[in-house]
Amino acid sequence: MDAHKQLTIGLFGFGVVGEGLYKVLQQTPSLKATIKKVCIKDAAKKRNAPADLFTTDKNVLLNDEEINVIVEVIDDANAAFKIVSTALKNKKDVVSASKKMIAEHLTELLKLQKETGQSFLCEAAACASIPVIRNLEEYYDNDLLHSIKAIVNGSTNFILTKMFEEKLGFKEALLLAQQLGFAESNPKLDVEGYDAVNKWTFLLTHAYGIIESPENILFTGIQNINAGDANVAREKNYEIKLVAQAKKLNNGKVAAFVLPQFIKQDDHLAFVKNEYNGVVIESGFADKQFFYGKGAGSFPTASAVLSDIAALRYQYHYEYKKLYHHKPHQLDNDFYLRVYVSFDDLRHIPRENFEWIEEWHAGEQRKYLVGVLSFNQLKNNDWWRKHNNSLILLPDPVIENIEIKKLKKKSLELAGLI
Ligand code: HSE
């Protein structure tokens, strides 16, 4: 495709993102990209576009030779994968925003891109308006990327902001996120961390060449965070955020997880409110860099789709440099985390599983502890997910294997136990 060639688009989905893209494209005639047909599921629904634009037959788009770009923004992951794989095999470039589909079919998508030579771009699938994928692909060399921590789900960040800063109830805050078009059609995906871990799955591929399925990455959402946790956060001068984190360990492997985290007020992520997302990258020599922008919503997501469409004029495709041109990294479970756990009943807390406990409150008003757990302990047991316990990481939560003995000794000394 040369830079002057007309892009003829077949669009799948006309929901929050699809309609946003339709409007945004009308305002950018210089792009020379037009939507020829839109495939929708529900023919009866009233749409803000001419009726002859729509069809319910996917093959009308997939078999149209004039259509050279398929844009897929539906939320049924299985249907999306069928559409994307057929489109690539039919020699069409694809732009997708389906994070669940990408996370669940990563290996197949990589294979299809190799076999067909077509582009598959998905900037809108993670952090919506923030160009995080292209930056990880193009700018950050594997060896220099020390860590990334990010807020990648707009709805949970919106809910936490509304609950703890504006005192809305959880249900009210979620309803508002749904009305504004931020939440998934099944909001459990947002609230319980599935959406965030799906995004983290393929961001780890672009950052470190890691290919892992989402269920192998430790995650939870904000479902157990309560007002008591927010009070503790306030006393300690922290914010609570759902944070996706990856950190290169001394052994060269990568620690990665998606868990709620206490964030210090001077941390860049503390600045990220409502549906905004933020990414803090620590890299060799540059120290910290912070990317910030809207992580959900119609136009912000459409803007990333638009940018991918524009990039197709230059035959842009992901090279997956960290995977194919470097030695890909592996995930590691051999490290420790500093955690806060609040509970209703201390009998549900296996104290013996902690390396050490730094703080312990078991009064009527407040029941929580702060301590250190091995990552394996968290990954292989679910006591911390049950009985209304909530688990929140402390700032800078990762403790490396080589540091643990020294820190444990120091902590026991401080507590007067040795
Ligand atoms: N439900 C998603 C979110 C939409 O809240 O981040 C954007 O991917």
What does this structure look like?
With 418 residues, the chain is an alpha/beta fold. Helix content is 33%, strand content 25%. The chain has helices at 16-26, 58-62, 77-89, 99-104, 106-116, 132-138, 154-165, 170-179, 188-191, 194-208, 227-235, 298-312, 321-324, 375-380, 404-414; strands at 7-12, 33-39, 54-55, 69-72, 93-96, 120-121, 145-151, 218-219, 238-248, 254-264, 276-283, 287-294, 335-342, 356-362, 367-374, 390-400. The strands form three sheets. Strands 3-2-1-4-5-6 form a six-stranded parallel β-sheet, sandwiched between helices. It is globular and about 75 Å long. Bound molecules: L-homoserine. The site of L-homoserine has 11 residues, from helix 7. L-homoserine binds at residues 128, 153-155, 182-184, 190, 195, 295-296.
Q: How are the SSEs ordered, and which strands pair?
A:
Blueprint: E1 7-12, H1 16-26, E2 33-39, E3 54-55, H2 58-62, E4 69-72, H3 77-89, E5 93-96, H4 99-104, H5 106-116, E6 120-121, H6 132-138, E7 145-151, H7 154-165, H8 170-179, H9 188-191, H10 194-208, E8 218-219, H11 227-235, E9 238-248, E10 254-264, E11 276-283, E12 287-294, H12 298-312, H13 321-324, E13 335-342, E14 356-362, E15 367-374, H14 375-380, E16 390-400, H15 404-414
Parallel strand pairs: 1-2, 1-4, 2-3, 4-5, 5-6, 8-10
Antiparallel strand pairs: 7-9, 7-11, 9-10, 11-12, 13-15, 13-16, 14-15
The protein binds L-homoserine.
L-homoserine is lined by residues 128, 153-155, 182-184, 190, 195, 295-296.
